[in-house]
Each structure stands twice: as structure tokens, then as C-alpha cells.
Design goal:
The structure holds two protein chains of two kinds.
Chain A (H helix, E strand, L loop, with lengths): L2 E4 L3 E5 L4 E3 L1 E4 L5 E7 L5 E7 L5 E3 L5 E5 L4 E6 L8 E8 L9 E3 L3 E6 L1
Parallel strand pairs in A: 2-12
Antiparallel strand pairs in A: 1-4, 3-9, 5-6, 5-10, 7-8, 8-9, 10-11, 10-12
Chain B lengths: L3 E4 L2 E4 L4 E8 L5 E7 L6 E7 L2 E5 L6 E7 L2 E7 L7 E8 L9 E2 L3 E5 L1
Parallel strand pairs in B: 2-11
Antiparallel strand pairs in B: 1-3, 3-8, 4-5, 4-9, 5-6, 7-8, 9-10, 9-11
Classes of the chains: A mainly beta, B mainly beta.
Chain lengths: 116, 114
């Protein structure tokens, strides 16, 4: 069975400082991993995805994530936070390739606050 | 503009009402999904449709009734709901041909059951 754990429910950073949102996963297969972002009163938007190519994945808005199989982690980082980054972030694991539905398993989310 | 449009954005209903949520995707996708997002809980998959055929019902109570008349439209019919059904209902679509797992979400319908 697959699962994903987001280690922090809330993260607060100052504008201009680095962002680290932590995610650990469990999967019996080679997983596909995603980070989605949800701004207030909006739907979820894909930030980046890992599908067994390069382990360092670059996404939109300056975010990137590194797939570390030995640590079963897929942490999201950004060198310098911007006020517009304040949102909720979801780590997602998929059983891509294992069946018709390709279920996405969502983490519980990390709410990122950016202080001026 | 995400390409997936949900209406209404907000809905308040009593427990005896009947209402419907609508989702339309303009992306040419062939798979559509309903998710429920409640506070402090992970996103819950409710229903999956592939090429208009329901392929998954994640043990959803019968007071929620989905309908997919074509690959571009998805409805969620609501009847005799409970207050605990209050949540954000998200529609999503995917192109099963590319099959990277990426879902495209609408902005959601915020449902309040009184």
C-alpha cells in the first residue's frame, strides 16, 4: 500500500528566506510523486512532478524537489520565499502504471505562511 | 483559468433539499473525478469516470449521485445531505492517454449543509 506523510502541518517563514516543506512516502513500487499548491478559495495546481527521470525536479515559481529513494523523501524547497507563496501545499504519491485509475494518494497538507 | 470550471462556487442547502454540482472541462480529457476536501483531512476520492463510464465509487453514500453524460461534463447530484457533508467538492480531469498521473482541478464548490 502507498502512503504519504507531510511532516509539518504549518510552516512560517519570512519573505526572502528559504522554504522547506517535508514529505515522506511509502510505496511498494517505483512511485510517481507530485507537489500541488492550493491558494485560498482556489483549486489545486500542479507545482512539479517526479516520474523516474531526474531525481532533482524543477517546478513553477522557483520551487524544486529532490527524490531520495534511500530516505523515501520528496521534500519541496525554494531558495527565497515570496508573499505570493502563502498557500497550502500537498505532497502526492501515485501508483502510476499499476492500474486504470492511477490513484493519487494525497498528504494532509502543509500550510505555508510568509511573513513580511 | 484552469480549464476545469465548477458551478456553483458556493451552495447552502438544507438537509431535505435536492441540488446539483456541475463540472465542465475544456481540455479534451477523458477521465473525470470528484474529490471531497474537508478541514484537517486528506483529499478523499469519491468517484472516477473514464470515457463516461464510472470506474470507481469509493464507498460514497447513496445521497451523492454522480452523472457523466459525456467526457466533458460531470455532475454530482445531492439529496438529503447531512451537516457532516459540508466541504469543498473538487472536480478534476486527466488525459488517460498521457497517463502521467497529473490531474487538473477546478476551483471547487463550497457546500454548506444546514
Amino acid at each position: 500500500a502507498q502512503s504519504v506523510t507531510q511532516l509539518d502541518s504549518h510552516v512560517s517563514v519570512s519573505e526572502g528566506t528559504p522554504v522547506l516543506l517535508r514529505c515522506n512516502y511509502s510505496s511498494s513500487y517505483s512511485p510517481s510523486l507530485f507537489w500541488y499548491v492550493q491558494h485560498p478559495n482556489k483549486g489545486l495546481q500542479l507545482l512539479l512532478k517526479y516520474t523516474s527521470a531526474a531525481t532533482l525536479v524543477k517546478g513553477i515559481n522557483g520551487f524544486e524537489a529532490e527524490f531520495k529513494k534511500s530516505e523515501t523523501s520528496f521534500h519541496l524547497t525554494k531558495p527565497s520565499a515570496h508573499m505570493s507563496d502563502a498557500a497550502e501545499y500537498f505532497c502526492v504519491v501515485s501508483d502510476y502504471g499499476r492500474g486504470a485509475t492511477n490513484k493519487l494518494i494525497f498528504g494532509t497538507g502543509t500550510l505555508l505562511a510568509v511573513q513580511p | 483559468e484552469t480549464g476545469v470550471t465548477q458551478t456553483p462556487r458556493h451552495l447552502v442547502m438544507g438537509m431535505t433539499n435536492k441540488k446539483s454540482l456541475k463540472c465542465e472541462q475544456h481540455l479534451g480529457h477523458n477521465a473525470m473525478y470528484w474529490y471531497k476536501q474537508s478541514a484537517k483531512k486528506p483529499l478523499e476520492l469519491m468517484f472516477v469516470y473514464n470515457f463516461k463510464e464510472q470506474t470507481e465509487n469509493n464507498s460514497v453514500p447513496s445521497r451523492f449521485s454522480p452523472e457523466c453524460p459525456n467526457s466533458s461534463h460531470l455532475f454530482l447530484h445531492l439529496h438529503t445531505l447531512q451537516p457532516e457533508d459540508s466541504a469543498l467538492y473538487l472536480c478534476a480531469s486527466k488525459d488517460r492517454g498521457t497517463d502521467t498521473g497529473e490531474l487538473f482541478f477546478g476551483e471547487g464548490s463550497r457546500l454548506t449543509v444546514l
